[in-house]
Amino acid sequence: MTRTPEEHGARFDEKAADYDDDQSEEYRRCADLVISYASPGSEETVLDIGTGTGEIALALAPEAKRVLGRDVSEGMLDRARRKADLRGIETVAFDKGRFRELRVSEPVDVVVSNFAMHHLADEEKRAAIDAIADLGPRKFVLGDVMFFGKPDPDEPFFSPEVDDPATVGVLADALTDAGFALTAVESVGSESRRGGDGEAVEAVHDQVGVLVAERTERAGRIEEPIAGRETDDVTDSEERDAESGAATSEGPIVPDEGGTASHEE
Question: What is the CATH number of domain 5-247?
Fold first, then answer.
């Protein structure tokens, strides 16, 4: 971790008032994908780690029975609570918590996190994923800064002094070791360039993406191969990184059964 949880909390306390207005297109698209993939049932409880101002938690509240939001920044949590009050949403509960100290005492069915885990070192990410697995959710949806290939050093989508993104392979290995199976991998794109015919072309981002992991006993087999490979499980980080990089032009991985930085440590 590049900074302590307390330092990150203080940093985002200062950002809380303008946080919702200052987010990039990639951040917003990532959040939309996390919401879409989460898809909780009406009797399910959702945990949003690094909830920030609560936008994802509040978006999922109408679908779920209950949503728990956890964050290290009290300033962010205050904004989230005010937004819930203004919208009349009573099925969300926001409180202090972090990846490895979640402070959750009730069963959780779906866990989500957006633009938060990249503040942790790789071994801390693994410990965080283990802590999430210990809660017994059927699904974990992670949106974050992550490397699908070798990032362009001239165009980093992160701040090295406060961020420590992992490769997709490192995250995938940690998820599978914790008992999850990857059912979707999607890089986040933005319509930021034009093709030869002048039409907008979806430009995928090699440093921002969403991983969907489901409990091994529940997850469907992956239907679409990554960049033409077979669908056998991959456990080697380097092999998975190479394949994930190729997958950025292929779109999401779809299970056959249907299936700038943030604020949490």
Answer: 3.40.50.150
